[in-house]
Amino acid sequence: MKVFNTLSQRLEDFVPLDGKRVRLYTCGPTVYNYAHIGNFRAYVFEDVLRRTLKYFGFEVLQVMNLTDVDDKTIRGARAGGKPLNVYTQTYKDAFFADLKTLNVEPAEHYPAATDHIPAMIAIIAALMAKGHAYRSDDGSVYFSVASFPAYGRLAHLDMAGLKPGARVAQDEYEKENVADFALWKAWDEEDGDVAWDSPWGRGRPGWHIECSAMSTQYLGETFDLHTGGVDNIFPHHEDEIAQSEAASGKPFVRYWMHCAHLMVDGRKMSKSLGNFYTLRDILGRGYTGRETRYVLAAGHYRQSLNFTFDSLNGARAALQRLDEFQARLADRAGSVAAAAALPSWAEETRPRFEGALADDLNVSGALGALFDLVHAGNKAMDAAQAAPAEAAAVRALLARFDGVLGFLAAPEAEVPAQALALLEQRQAARKAKNWAESDRIRNELATLGWIIQDTPQGAKLKRK
Ligand code: AMP
Ligand code: ZN
Q1: What is the pLDDT of residues 390-413, one digit of tens each?
Q2: pLDDT for the residue numbered 461
Q3: Using CA atoms, how far apart are residues 33 and 278, in angstroms rounded to an integer?
Q4: Best residue among 110, 226, 231 to mutate for probing ligand 1, ranked by most atoms within 8 Å of CB
């Protein structure tokens, strides 16, 4: 598999340090608000990456942190008049619910920053001991950028203009303001009761040290793959590299992958611009998690993606086409489960699908192969040229593909509970040979927008 490494700006063969085991760190949400679908573009990209690695036979150990203390969470908790942990818990819970709705596979670990303060203090102490960090007048601790000559390698910064001794206290800043950045922030009034003891006095960690500490604790000092959105490259990931490598004396991460932004009218979807939709907003307008996942996953991760409601409508149409094809295959396959060889019209699909994914996660290319299969398969079935065993083989292939895509199988949960209950009543009526009642329920479901499909696996509901 080839991946585009932000560090080298090149496509590289992906070879993990430890055979088939991949250690992956994915920067998680800052839990100060509901994540918007721009954030979820990053998490869906990382999910497709994880699933693709597994598809190709790798074993993935993924860590996604929860940033539950930083400038933004503290500001939010204060504005909301709540203790920090109560404030962030709401958004942690919402985040996991949203991941489920988007059919994102859980990571192996979700460490929260506030549970890992001692590990952060240990790295800062190591940096102090090695002369990479210093204490400022107010008791904060800063990383000395000048002490780390490799600084700027990831973001490809020109360091010529660096002003010696300049400092930046905020977690987020622009490339123009490259400066020594805060590792430990001395307590001030704005922090309220958010503070931990440290060798440098009471205070709290900077955002970047959180990820250095949590990644190292779960994945080791050197690991394979680290990802995020492109806005994470600077300063977050640049600062992570500086802290981690200066402290350990070892290379931090071998491959860095960053997804391009989800845009709205040509601008990055973001909280600060106010041009964002949460997943809840999208569901409230009648779209599903599956449709949203399709929109977020279908493009190439390194191309920016313009979000429109039309793209959700497009996803709905594409999924319907896939659903119809799968229903047709299921019909044709009947009870034939054992898969024979693939029919000639499906022979190219797998190498094309896999070739596209192995080429820096080209999901759009993989979907191209999939829709060509739908076209060829429909033609073959129109001409009655698909044997049941062949249809079964293609179904098995699609099930494999769905291990990566995560949107081919229509999740049961997307059918409202009311409709599922009606379906059950209809099954009971049929069992009792009460055909009139069964028909009545079928009509009631139809008025709710659902069609019953009798399949070898039992009755299923399909959107009208
Ligand atoms: P945050 O909660 O701000 O730390 O962001 C969480 C993740 O979402 C990070 O990986 C960001 O790079 C990513 N992200 C934020 N906005 C967007 C966007 N509009 N499109 C894609 N990814 C984004
Ligand atoms: Zn991070």
Answers
A1: 999 999 999 999 999 999 997 765
A2: 85
A3: 10
A4: 231
β-pair type (167-168, 141-143): unpaired
Q: Find the mean pLDDT for residues 417-438.
A: 90
Distance CA(413)–CA(354), nearest Å, equals 29
Position 412 scores a pLDDT of 63
Range 47-78 burial, b when 16+ CB lie within 10 A, else e: bbbbbbbebeebebbbbbbbbbbbbbbbebbe
**pLDDT of res. 339:** 65
Distance from the alpha carbon of residue 144 to the mean position of ligand 2, in angstroms: 20
Cα–ligand 2 centroid distance for 173 (angstroms)? 15
Nearest CA among 14, 70, 47 for reference residue 404 = 47
Nearest to 390 by CA among 349, 328, 346, 335: 346
Nearby residues of 219 by Cβ (< 8 Å), 6 or more positions away? 23, 24, 25, 61, 63
CA 78, 80, 86, 88 torsion: positive or negative? Answer: negative
User: Which helix (H) or strand (E) is 318 found in, with range?
Assistant: helix 309-333
Strands 59-64 and 21-26: parallel
pLDDT tens readout for residues 111-153: 999 999 999 999 999 999 999 999 999 999 999 999 999 999 9
Is the separation of the CB atoms in 160 and 152 below 8 Å?
no
Judged against a pLDDT cut of 90, whether residue 320 lies above it is answered with: yes
Ligand 1: residue whose CA is nearest its atom 17: 38
Which candidate, 300, 333, 299, places its Cα nearest to that of 318?
A: 299
pTM attached to this predicted model: 0.90
